[in-house]
Amino acid sequence: MNTILLLAAKEVREGLRNRWVLAATGLLAALALTLAFLGSAPTGTVGAGALDVVVISLASLTIFIVPLIALLISHDAIVGEIDRGTMTLLLSYPVRRSQVLLGKFLGHIAILAFATCVGYGLAAVALLATGKAIGGGSWTAFVAMTASSVLVGAVFVAIGYLVSALVRDRGTAGGIAIGVWLVFVILYDMALLGLLVADQGRFVGDGVLDALLLFNPTDAYRLLNLAGSDDIAAASGMAGVVQNAALGPAVLLAALAAWIVAPMALAAAAFSRREL
Amino acid sequence: MSFNVELKSVARHYGPVRAVDDVSFSAGTGEVIALVGHNGAGKTTLIKLMLGLARPTAGSVAVLGQNPAAGDASVRRRLGYLPENVSFNPALTGRETLRFYVRLKGGRPKEEDALLERLGLAHAADRRVGTYSKGMRQRLGLAQAMIGTPAVLLLDEPTTGLDPELRQQFYGIVRQMGAAGATVLLCSHALNELEGNAGRVVIMNEGRKIADGSLDELRHIAQLPTKIRLKTAEDGTRRLREWMGEPAGLRQINGHIVEFDATPEAKAAFLRRAAGEGAPFVDLDMVPPGLDELYAHFLAGRILR
Question: Are B34 and B157 in contact (CB under 8 A)?
Fold first, then answer.
């Protein structure tokens, strides 16, 4: 355990030193603040709660940006260290490969969690400063959204490691990471939408749709947050989905957890078989 | 006697490439052994086998009595390794880098400061590794290999990028470690600098061990001639040549210097005669065959066979 924490601490220190933490936090804070102010303008004093609108905007932001940041910091983690020769040295120490992987994971999650909490927290603080009344339910949704954003980040960190453990050179890892992002964030939903339109409800029933949504971690995240509470579901236009979907928060969280465990296990297997 | 490092008919093939083929040797405590060979002769693969980073296709490897591929932490704690072209994260300082490795190995607290001091890096300890010169990075690499005074030190091309003074310093440290009982294995293709620094030399070629022994033993096996260079007074070479009886293979370097190669027996005979009265030369130099010549000799023998 000590070894894992030591490796995690080194990852965080390197992240601080090479400005990854700063860049990620700055990017998320800037986008979150922008969305908070743009988003709260049209609602005025009536209608949806101010923080609810922010939760909806930030959830959509998360789906685009957090996987991208996660893949950027993780795709190089193994193949990059092998390439630079630092992995050979590290593995000559009393360290198991699974410890290397877990240590890096904890370190990268810490970086992502910090960036997300600070970035999104700033948006909430800014909203408070404008003096809008915010209900307790909205706060719960906000905290849940922030926490699940870190979770979705962890999913893509794990996927990034899998890519990193499998490929031979860093360029390939980068290319595949971009591809993974495109598929899960953009192409999958477009294909799903196309399928639903073309199918007209003949073959793809609710059960199949639910399964298809769980096959994409960003969709699980979207359902978790946008359909999570009635107010937000109504405001985000997801009310229709909520009524049909049999996917409760527990199932969605389990899906996200599986999306972390499975790639990590595969990455560990690939890494342990790899010769340096 | 048990050996710190023991290889028995080890082979490691990558597809059709025989990176290491049927290599056996053992190294006891306090031995400083040089692994010598061309690039691609299998030196680095041998080191990786000893680290357990590569698994042997055939044969067995034991380091400190254990199979290194089993990943026993207690063995790794007593092992130091300096990779070829060592690299560290350029954003961290030398002290931070070394402290990380000390803690990873369970070394003594503040051991990093002592090591930085010993390798002459104390003044740069709080500078980023990115600002270090090649020689400084190499010394930092050596410092991390020395954490916890290891029983086995594996050094892959340790002196590349070091200037002559640092090289001497480096071999001084290696000798100290050897004297303290560590088994030091170092890869090199800078043969001449091993003279006097490595007690034993293992010559590798195309994955096979082609020679193994101390430099003196290898010289004896190779029966290489010693180069004898004679200096006479100005224009005295004619007399010298007559005195020597115009031996074949005598080379005239210039007006007052001649040179010839003498086998061990011929050398002794010549020296006995030269010690007598009236030998017409003023100075004599003997150059024993260096590692370069030895290496070339064993390599040629290999190819002929």
Answer: no
How many interface pairs between A and B have CB atoms less than 8 angstroms apart?
A: 61
Nearest-CA distance A42 → chain B (Å)? 46
Q: Across the interface, do A94 and B105 touch by the CB < 8 Å criterion?
A: yes
Name which of B55, B71, B87 is nearest A84 (Cβ-Cβ). Answer: B87
pLDDT, one tens digit per residue, over B244-284 is 877 777 888 887 888 888 887 788 888 888 887 778 888 88
Whether B144 shows a pLDDT value over 90: the answer reads yes
ipTM: 0.86
Q: Which helix (H) or strand (E) holds A55?
A: helix A50-74
Residue of B nearest to A93 (CA): B76
Q: Is B151 helix (H, G, I), strand (E, B) or coil?
A: coil
Most confident residue range from A99-113, A136-150, B156-170, B187-201? A99-113
Q: Say yes or no for a CB contact (<8 Å) between A3 and B104.
A: yes
Residue B237: which residues within 8 A CB-CB, separation 6 or more?
Answer: B252, B255, B256, B257, B258
Tokens of A111: 């970086």
CA distance A150 to chain B (A): 26
Locate the domains of chain A by residue range: 2-273
Cα B230 from Cα B257, distance rounded (Å)? 6
Q: Pick from A13, A96, A276: which is nearest to B48 by CB?
A: A276
Residues B170, B168: Cα–Cα separation, whole Å: 5
Half-sphere exposure of A22 (CA within 13 A, CB side): 6
Is the entire prediction scored with pTM above 0.95? no
* Helix (H), strand (E) at residue A52: helix A50-74
Contacts of B253 (CB under 8 A, 6+ apart): B229, B259
Q: What share of chain B is helix, strand, coil (3-state, %, to 5)?
A: 35, 25, 35
- Among the partner-chain residues B55, B81, B96, the one whose CB lies closest to the CB of A89 is B81
Q: Which helix (H) or strand (E) holds A171?
A: helix A170-182
Identify residues of A whose CB sits under 8 angstroms from chain B CBs. Answer: 3, 6-7, 10, 13-14, 17-18, 84-86, 88-89, 91-96, 275-276
Q: Do B34 and B188 meet the contact criterion of CB atoms below 8 Å apart? A: yes
SS (H, E, C) B112-144: HHHHHHHCCCHHHCCCEHHHCCHHHHHHHHHHH
Determine how many CB atoms are found less than 10 A away from the CB of residue A186: 13
Residue numbers of B between 17 and 56 with CB closer than 8 Å to A: 48, 51, 53-55
